[in-house]
Amino acid sequence: MGPKISIITVCYNAETLIERTVRSILNQTYANIEYVIVDGNSTDKTMEIIRDILSEIPVETGGAPSLQPKIISEPDNGIYDAMNKGLALATGDYVWFINAGDEIYEPTTLENLMPFFEQNADVIYGDTVRVDDDRNVLGLREKRPPKTFTWKTFRMGMMVCHQSILIAKNIAPNYDLHYRISADIDWIIRAMKQAKIVCNSHQILSRFLIGGFSKQREKESWKERFAIMKKHYGLLQTLIFHVFISVRFLFK
Protein backbone atom coordinates (compact mmCIF):
# COMPACT_ATOMS: atom_id res chain seq x y z
CA MET A 1 0.00 0.00 0.00
CA GLY A 2 2.86 2.37 0.68
CA PRO A 3 3.62 4.56 3.69
CA LYS A 4 0.94 6.64 5.37
CA ILE A 5 1.06 10.27 4.27
CA SER A 6 -0.30 12.83 6.73
CA ILE A 7 -1.48 15.82 4.74
CA ILE A 8 -2.15 18.80 6.99
CA THR A 9 -4.36 21.75 6.09
CA VAL A 10 -4.48 24.81 8.32
CA CYS A 11 -7.31 27.25 7.69
CA TYR A 12 -9.26 30.16 9.13
CA ASN A 13 -12.26 31.88 7.54
CA ALA A 14 -11.33 30.29 4.22
CA GLU A 15 -14.77 29.63 2.74
CA THR A 16 -13.70 30.91 -0.69
CA LEU A 17 -10.51 28.82 -0.74
CA ILE A 18 -11.02 25.60 1.13
CA GLU A 19 -13.01 23.52 -1.36
CA ARG A 20 -10.28 23.32 -4.00
CA THR A 21 -7.71 22.45 -1.35
CA VAL A 22 -9.75 19.65 0.20
CA ARG A 23 -10.76 18.17 -3.14
CA SER A 24 -7.15 18.10 -4.31
CA ILE A 25 -6.45 15.74 -1.39
CA LEU A 26 -9.59 13.66 -1.76
CA ASN A 27 -8.93 13.17 -5.48
CA GLN A 28 -5.51 11.59 -4.93
CA THR A 29 -5.16 8.12 -6.41
CA TYR A 30 -2.73 7.18 -3.63
CA ALA A 31 -4.46 4.87 -1.15
CA ASN A 32 -2.94 5.59 2.27
CA ILE A 33 -3.66 9.18 3.30
CA GLU A 34 -4.39 10.62 6.71
CA TYR A 35 -5.96 14.04 6.27
CA VAL A 36 -5.56 16.44 9.20
CA ILE A 37 -7.50 19.71 9.13
CA VAL A 38 -6.81 22.35 11.76
CA ASP A 39 -9.32 25.20 11.70
CA GLY A 40 -8.84 28.29 13.84
CA ASN A 41 -12.48 28.47 14.93
CA SER A 42 -13.73 30.03 11.70
CA THR A 43 -16.79 32.25 11.85
CA ASP A 44 -17.74 31.82 8.19
CA LYS A 45 -18.81 28.67 6.31
CA THR A 46 -15.36 27.04 6.23
CA MET A 47 -16.24 24.13 8.51
CA GLU A 48 -19.62 23.58 6.86
CA ILE A 49 -17.94 23.29 3.48
CA ILE A 50 -15.30 20.90 4.84
CA ARG A 51 -17.88 18.62 6.44
CA ASP A 52 -20.05 18.62 3.31
CA ILE A 53 -17.11 17.57 1.14
CA LEU A 54 -15.85 14.93 3.56
CA SER A 55 -19.34 13.44 3.75
CA GLU A 56 -18.86 12.50 0.09
CA ILE A 57 -15.78 10.35 0.79
CA PRO A 58 -17.40 6.92 0.19
CA VAL A 59 -18.72 8.12 -3.16
CA GLU A 60 -15.96 10.28 -4.55
CA THR A 61 -12.56 9.18 -3.37
CA GLY A 62 -12.28 5.95 -5.35
CA GLY A 63 -8.50 6.07 -5.37
CA ALA A 64 -8.21 7.00 -1.71
CA PRO A 65 -10.50 4.56 0.11
CA SER A 66 -8.37 4.61 3.26
CA LEU A 67 -8.47 8.39 3.70
CA GLN A 68 -8.53 9.00 7.44
CA PRO A 69 -9.77 12.52 8.27
CA LYS A 70 -8.99 14.21 11.58
CA ILE A 71 -10.55 17.61 12.17
CA ILE A 72 -10.29 20.14 14.97
CA SER A 73 -11.76 23.63 15.08
CA GLU A 74 -10.65 25.83 17.96
CA PRO A 75 -8.85 29.13 18.59
CA ASP A 76 -5.10 29.10 18.10
CA ASN A 77 -2.14 31.38 18.63
CA GLY A 78 -1.37 32.00 14.98
CA ILE A 79 -0.68 29.90 11.89
CA TYR A 80 2.39 28.11 13.27
CA ASP A 81 0.62 27.18 16.49
CA ALA A 82 -2.06 25.64 14.26
CA MET A 83 0.60 23.80 12.27
CA ASN A 84 2.05 22.40 15.49
CA LYS A 85 -1.42 21.12 16.38
CA GLY A 86 -1.50 19.41 12.99
CA LEU A 87 1.87 17.79 13.62
CA ALA A 88 0.67 16.55 17.01
CA LEU A 89 -2.35 14.89 15.37
CA ALA A 90 -0.39 13.40 12.46
CA THR A 91 0.50 9.72 12.71
CA GLY A 92 1.79 9.18 9.18
CA ASP A 93 5.26 8.28 7.97
CA TYR A 94 5.47 11.64 6.17
CA VAL A 95 3.92 15.05 6.76
CA TRP A 96 2.93 17.45 3.99
CA PHE A 97 1.40 20.90 4.55
CA ILE A 98 -1.17 21.95 1.96
CA ASN A 99 -2.92 24.93 3.49
CA ALA A 100 -6.15 26.68 2.48
CA GLY A 101 -5.85 28.08 -1.05
CA ASP A 102 -3.08 25.70 -2.10
CA GLU A 103 -3.56 22.38 -3.90
CA ILE A 104 -1.75 19.16 -4.65
CA TYR A 105 -0.80 19.49 -8.30
CA GLU A 106 -2.70 16.58 -9.82
CA PRO A 107 -4.56 13.41 -8.70
CA THR A 108 -1.57 11.14 -9.38
CA THR A 109 1.01 13.32 -7.60
CA LEU A 110 1.38 11.15 -4.50
CA GLU A 111 1.20 7.91 -6.46
CA ASN A 112 4.06 9.17 -8.65
CA LEU A 113 6.24 9.56 -5.54
CA MET A 114 6.17 5.84 -4.74
CA PRO A 115 9.74 5.20 -6.03
CA PHE A 116 11.04 7.71 -3.47
CA PHE A 117 8.98 6.20 -0.67
CA GLU A 118 10.56 2.86 -1.55
CA GLN A 119 14.00 4.44 -1.04
CA ASN A 120 12.97 5.39 2.51
CA ALA A 121 13.67 9.02 1.71
CA ASP A 122 13.67 11.41 4.65
CA VAL A 123 12.75 14.34 2.42
CA ILE A 124 11.08 14.47 -0.99
CA TYR A 125 10.82 17.79 -2.79
CA GLY A 126 9.73 19.20 -6.12
CA ASP A 127 8.58 22.20 -8.09
CA THR A 128 5.65 24.57 -7.59
CA VAL A 129 3.16 26.28 -9.89
CA ARG A 130 1.93 29.73 -8.83
CA VAL A 131 -1.75 30.59 -9.23
CA ASP A 132 -3.78 33.74 -8.56
CA ASP A 133 -7.12 34.17 -6.82
CA ASP A 134 -8.94 33.12 -9.99
CA ARG A 135 -6.78 29.98 -10.24
CA ASN A 136 -5.03 31.30 -13.33
CA VAL A 137 -1.61 29.69 -13.69
CA LEU A 138 1.15 32.32 -13.45
CA GLY A 139 3.99 29.94 -14.21
CA LEU A 140 6.54 28.09 -12.15
CA ARG A 141 7.96 29.65 -9.02
CA GLU A 142 10.88 31.99 -9.80
CA LYS A 143 13.22 30.22 -7.38
CA ARG A 144 13.50 26.77 -8.85
CA PRO A 145 14.27 23.72 -6.70
CA PRO A 146 17.98 22.84 -6.78
CA LYS A 147 19.19 19.58 -8.28
CA THR A 148 20.55 18.62 -4.88
CA PHE A 149 19.28 19.95 -1.59
CA THR A 150 20.88 20.15 1.86
CA TRP A 151 20.26 22.35 4.89
CA LYS A 152 22.90 24.74 3.54
CA THR A 153 20.90 25.33 0.34
CA PHE A 154 18.65 27.87 2.07
CA ARG A 155 21.60 30.26 2.36
CA MET A 156 20.43 31.42 -1.06
CA GLY A 157 16.82 31.90 0.04
CA MET A 158 13.81 29.64 0.19
CA MET A 159 14.79 27.46 -2.76
CA VAL A 160 12.06 24.88 -2.11
CA CYS A 161 8.49 25.97 -1.53
CA HIS A 162 6.93 24.86 1.75
CA GLN A 163 3.99 23.36 -0.18
CA SER A 164 6.29 21.18 -2.28
CA ILE A 165 8.23 19.28 0.35
CA LEU A 166 7.33 16.07 2.19
CA ILE A 167 9.27 15.38 5.37
CA ALA A 168 9.49 12.13 7.33
CA LYS A 169 7.50 12.52 10.52
CA ASN A 170 10.34 11.22 12.67
CA ILE A 171 12.58 14.18 11.74
CA ALA A 172 9.88 16.87 11.56
CA PRO A 173 10.32 19.33 14.44
CA ASN A 174 7.69 21.63 15.88
CA TYR A 175 7.55 25.13 14.47
CA ASP A 176 9.38 27.73 16.56
CA LEU A 177 6.67 30.10 17.75
CA HIS A 178 9.21 32.87 18.29
CA TYR A 179 8.81 33.44 14.56
CA ARG A 180 5.40 34.73 13.54
CA ILE A 181 5.80 34.90 9.75
CA SER A 182 8.78 32.88 8.49
CA ALA A 183 8.92 29.92 10.85
CA ASP A 184 8.49 27.59 7.87
CA ILE A 185 12.03 28.43 6.71
CA ASP A 186 13.48 27.60 10.11
CA TRP A 187 11.36 24.42 10.22
CA ILE A 188 12.66 23.11 6.91
CA ILE A 189 16.30 23.92 7.75
CA ARG A 190 16.06 22.10 11.10
CA ALA A 191 14.45 19.09 9.45
CA MET A 192 17.06 19.05 6.71
CA LYS A 193 19.85 18.94 9.29
CA GLN A 194 18.44 15.57 10.39
CA ALA A 195 17.83 14.19 6.88
CA LYS A 196 20.04 11.45 5.48
CA ILE A 197 18.24 10.61 2.22
CA VAL A 198 16.92 13.58 0.25
CA CYS A 199 15.22 13.00 -3.11
CA ASN A 200 14.44 15.47 -5.86
CA SER A 201 11.21 14.23 -7.43
CA HIS A 202 11.77 16.30 -10.60
CA GLN A 203 8.00 16.80 -10.57
CA ILE A 204 5.57 19.63 -9.88
CA LEU A 205 4.04 18.82 -6.50
CA SER A 206 1.74 21.73 -5.69
CA ARG A 207 -0.18 24.78 -6.78
CA PHE A 208 0.68 27.74 -4.57
CA LEU A 209 -1.73 30.67 -4.15
CA ILE A 210 0.33 33.86 -4.29
CA GLY A 211 -0.12 36.66 -1.79
CA GLY A 212 0.04 34.54 1.35
CA PHE A 213 0.63 35.42 4.97
CA SER A 214 4.31 36.36 4.70
CA LYS A 215 3.76 38.34 1.49
CA GLN A 216 1.17 40.51 3.23
CA ARG A 217 3.75 41.48 5.90
CA GLU A 218 6.84 41.52 3.73
CA LYS A 219 9.03 43.89 5.76
CA GLU A 220 8.54 41.94 8.97
CA SER A 221 9.05 38.71 7.04
CA TRP A 222 12.46 39.88 5.80
CA LYS A 223 13.53 40.72 9.37
CA GLU A 224 12.59 37.24 10.54
CA ARG A 225 14.32 35.61 7.59
CA PHE A 226 17.49 37.52 8.39
CA ALA A 227 17.33 36.37 12.03
CA ILE A 228 16.73 32.76 10.96
CA MET A 229 19.58 32.74 8.47
CA LYS A 230 21.90 34.39 10.98
CA LYS A 231 21.06 31.65 13.50
CA HIS A 232 21.80 28.81 11.09
CA TYR A 233 24.55 30.24 8.85
CA GLY A 234 26.22 32.98 10.89
CA LEU A 235 26.22 36.75 10.49
CA LEU A 236 28.91 36.99 7.80
CA GLN A 237 27.31 34.49 5.42
CA THR A 238 23.93 36.14 5.93
CA LEU A 239 25.27 39.62 5.20
CA ILE A 240 27.07 38.40 2.07
CA PHE A 241 23.86 36.81 0.81
CA HIS A 242 21.79 39.94 1.41
CA VAL A 243 24.35 42.12 -0.38
CA PHE A 244 24.25 39.70 -3.33
CA ILE A 245 20.45 39.85 -3.45
CA SER A 246 20.44 43.65 -3.27
CA VAL A 247 22.94 43.98 -6.12
CA ARG A 248 21.04 41.50 -8.28
CA PHE A 249 17.78 43.40 -7.65
CA LEU A 250 19.37 46.75 -8.64
CA PHE A 251 20.70 45.38 -11.93
CA LYS A 252 17.59 43.49 -13.05
List strands and helices in order, with pairings:
Elements: E1 5-11, H1 18-26, E2 33-39, H2 46-54, H3 57-60, E3 68-73, H4 79-89, E4 94-97, E5 103-104, H5 114-118, E6 123-131, E7 137-140, E8 165-168, H6 183-194, E9 198-209, H7 213-216, H8 218-233, H9 235-250
Parallel strand pairs: 1-2, 1-4, 2-3, 6-9
Antiparallel strand pairs: 4-8, 5-9, 6-7, 6-8
Helix pairs in contact: 1-2, 6-8, 8-9
Offer a few descriptive terms:
single chain; 252 residues; alpha/beta; Spore Coat Polysaccharide Biosynthesis Protein SpsA, Chain A; nine-stranded mixed beta sheet; 9 helices
What is this structure, in a nutshell?
By secondary structure, the protein is an alpha/beta fold.
CATH superfamily annotation = Spore Coat Polysaccharide Biosynthesis Protein SpsA, Chain A
What percentage of the residues does DSSP assign to strands (E)? Answer: 15-25%
Average pLDDT, to the nearest integer? 89
Shape: globular
Distance between the termini: 49 Å
Note the run of SSEs as H and E. Answer: EHEHHEHEEHEEEHEHHH
- Determine the CATH topology: Spore Coat Polysaccharide Biosynthesis Protein SpsA, Chain A
> How many strand elements?
9
**How many helices?**
9
**At the first level of CATH, what is the class?**
Alpha Beta
Structural class: alpha/beta
**Rg, nearest Å:** 18 Å
Summarize the biggest pleated sheet.
9 strands, mixed
Helix content: 25-40%
How many structural domains?
1
State the CATH architecture: Alpha-Beta Complex
